[in-house]
Amino acid sequence: AGPRHPAAAEGEREQQEQYxxxxxxxxxxxxxxxxxxxxxxxxxxxxxxxxAVPGVSERKRKRAExxxxxxxxxxxxxxxxxxxxxxxVRKKHSEAEKKLSERENALEQADEEEDQKLFQNKVKQxxxxxxxxxxxxxxxxxxxxxxxxxxxRVADEAADRRTVFVGNLPVTCTxxxxxxxxxxxxxxxxxxxxxxxxxxxxxxxxxxxxxHKVHPNAKFINAxxxxxxxxxxxxxxxxxxTEIASGFHIRVDTASKNGSHDNKRSVFLGNLPYDIRDDAxxxxxxxxxxxxxxxxxxxxxxxxxxxxxxxxxxxxxxxxLALKLNNSVLMGRKIRVQRVADKKKAQKSAxxxxxxxxxxxxxxxxxxxxxxxxxxxxxxxxxxxxxxxRLKTTPRNxxxxxx
Length: 403
Fold this sequence. Notes:
Helix content: 40-55%
CATH superfamily of the domain at 153-258: RRM (RNA recognition motif) domain
Radius of gyration: 67 Å
Low-confidence stretches: 369-374
Protein name: RBM34 protein
CATH architecture of the domain at 153-258: 2-Layer Sandwich
GO molecular function: RNA binding
Number of helices: 13
Order of helices and strands: HHHHHEHEHEHEEEEHEEHEEEHHH
CATH class of the domain at 153-258: Alpha Beta
Organism: Pomatorhinus ruficollis (streak-breasted scimitar babbler)
Shape: elongated
Domain RRM: 162-257, 265-342
Strand content: 15-25%
Mean pLDDT: 75
Subcellular location: Nucleus, Nucleolus
Distance between the termini: 109 Å
Largest sheet: 4 strands, antiparallel
CATH topology of the domain at 153-258: Alpha-Beta Plaits
């Protein structure tokens, strides 16, 4: 043990002075045994050494001091010795392991690419399905509208075949007059008046037709007569050219667009007066032959002529005679008479006339570069010799050197 603390030594001395040998027996009570027998247990030659027990406070203080010293020593050791990083253990891979790892990586990448492709294909299929659904909906809607339009077109064509156009009617003509004229051919379904010029701009044509409020300068109107049967409409064409009133020869024709106009029996008229009447044209060309119909093209809003029209004859011979009336005077103006050209033939001729110049130039070049136009002399080919070629032989000395 180390050297004792001076305070502890002093405490021991005081305790030795306070305790007396044999005093313990006296402390057991009055009826206790005498001190002689207990004192006999201890030898007087070697008295006992008593050690003072330190207090609780001193123990705690020592433990705290020892703990502080240990913490200081640990902190100093931590500061003095820097942290040692653990060394990474490098694994030496062989070439086979590297190849295996590369192969595994390649397989993983391939799997990822396949998954991406499958996902993209699924997305595309969904888009296609949605587009197909939308297209089917649109097609069904358009198909329904197309069917409706087709049905309407068919119904309109059937109605047109049952309808008769009546032109060059006087303004005073009424529905009863037309009904009395055409009822002998069949049952009439309806009668409609057209080409009316209202007396006022604020009044519509329909109201003007119902109330008979027509412009005072208007002289003629047109009408449509609808029969219940198509055969009745064909019979009603017999009334074409009949004089319904003085100076009014009506023109009766089918309202169907499919009706073909015979251009061979017609002539075109130009430079006509704007206020000309159909009967004036009829009278002018009556000397050429029987006139089937006269059509002067007019403005819908004013009823005045546009300066041109057509005359349909019964025979083609009348067309030759009508062409001689070219530059003849009608109501103070020289009219122009021409044949009615077929539109299809006119378009073909126009297309041929508008052919590009490149084709013409190519044709000219081909003609100029033909074999017939080439002038020159042909070269005579050289004759090949039929003698066999000799093989080259090397002398023996040179052959040995080469070896």
